[in-house]
Design a protein that fits this description.
The structure is a single chain. With 292 residues, the chain is mainly α. It has 4 domains: 4-85, Arc Repressor Mutant, subunit A, CATH 1.10.10; 88-149, no CATH class; 154-226; 239-289, no CATH class. The protein contains 14 helices and 3 strands. It has helices at 18-29, 43-50, 54-63, 82-86, 93-107, 118-130, 154-166, 173-182, 189-200, 203-206, 216-221, 246-255, 273-284, 286-289, and strands spanning 38-40, 68-71, 76-79. A 3-stranded antiparallel β-sheet has the order 1-3-2, covered by helices on one side. Helix 1 crosses helix 3 (54-63) and helix 2 (43-50) crosses helix 3. The longest helix has 15 residues, at 93-107. It is elongated.
């Protein structure tokens, strides 16, 4: 719902084009709007909702520059001043906490406007503290209180991205990042990455198309990098169903100390398990071998 005070805002006065005004009203009132006024929105979706062409939407977004910022590369839109116009400073605690959580979610996303909310984040926290209200911690993420281990720094993002790149199951990235921060994994990245490599080679992760690979958040929450995965059998030890070639047959017989020109009737196939197993294969190839 749009607050009535929005209509008294000076930003409306200099929007003379009706279609541009309709675009602005859409941006502040569509179903995707977050409490911060910053949210992902593709131009295609906006064009469909507004019954416009994509190039028309781009034209109106350009006309709204200064009131609305749009990043075409990431498809994020930011309505400047949305919170102070939409909510009063005396807003109830649930609204303030909702906005704080929304800011924390922005920090975990690819939003290019995250830093613009640092001041608002601090103001909301101060307001809650003034009211003796608990400050939400974003489920173990950045509370904005300046606690170094809770804030997502560039080194945390880099370390997590290196983990995400090698981890084979690409599901629940935001939950995985939350778990990464909760367990302070950045200092352990040199231990975690080799462990992922070892797990990738184990039977459990490789069978059935990776069906049994844990979700990345689960793997982090359970400190699975400390596990020792079951080793896979080396490729050379696995059985093959293909028939032996003549050269392989010759080598096998030599290992059994059976002369190549010896008649099969002169050889006791019961003297060796391997020899007994070779009998059926030799019969299949007897035309090529000649004497057998």
């Amino acid at each position: 719902m749009i607050e009535p005070t929005f209509w008294n805002d000076p930003d409306f006065d200099d929007i003379s084009d009706v279609a541009t005004l309709a675009t602005y009203l859409y941006l502040i009132s569509n179903a995707a709007v977050s409490p911060t006024g910053c949210y992902p929105l593709s131009r295609r979706t906006a064009a469909y909702d507004l019954r416009m062409q994509i190039d028309e939407v781009e034209k109106h977004l350009t006309a709204l520059k200064g009131k609305v910022e749009y990043d075409g590369e990431t498809s994020w839109v930011w309505i400047k001043g949305y919170f102070p116009r939409q909510y009063k400073a005396t807003a109830n605690r649930n609204i303030l906490k909702s906005v704080l959580r929304s800011i924390n979610e922005l920090r975990l996303s690819n939003c290019p406007f995250t830093k613009e909310f640092d001041d608002l984040n601090s103001c909301l926290i101060n307001e809650l503290l003034t009211r003796n209200e608990p400050v939400p911690n974003g489920q173990g993420l950045d509370t904005g209180l300046g606690l170094g281990k809770d804030k997502i720094q560039d080194e945390d993002k880099t370390a997590f991205e290196s983990f995400w790149t090698v981890y084979p199951r690409k599901e629940g990235k935001q939950k995985a990042l939350a778990a990464w921060m909760k367990h302070n994994c950045t200092p352990l990245v040199q231990e975690i990455l080799p462990s992922v490599g070892r797990h990738i080679r184990c039977d459990q992760w490789s069978k059935d198309g990776g069906k049994y690979i844990p979700h990345p958040s689960t793997w982090i929450n359970q400190h699975r990098w400390e596990d020792e995965p079951m080793k896979s059998l080396p490729a050379s030890s696995t059985k093959s169903d293909r028939p032996l070639t003549m050269q392989e047959m010759r080598l096998k017989l030599e290992q059994l100390q059976v002369p190549w020109d010896q008649k099969s009737s002169d050889f006791d196939w019961r003297c060796s398990k391997e020899g007994k197993a070779l009998k059926a294969t030799i019969k299949k190839l007897r035309k090529d071998i000649g004497d057998f």
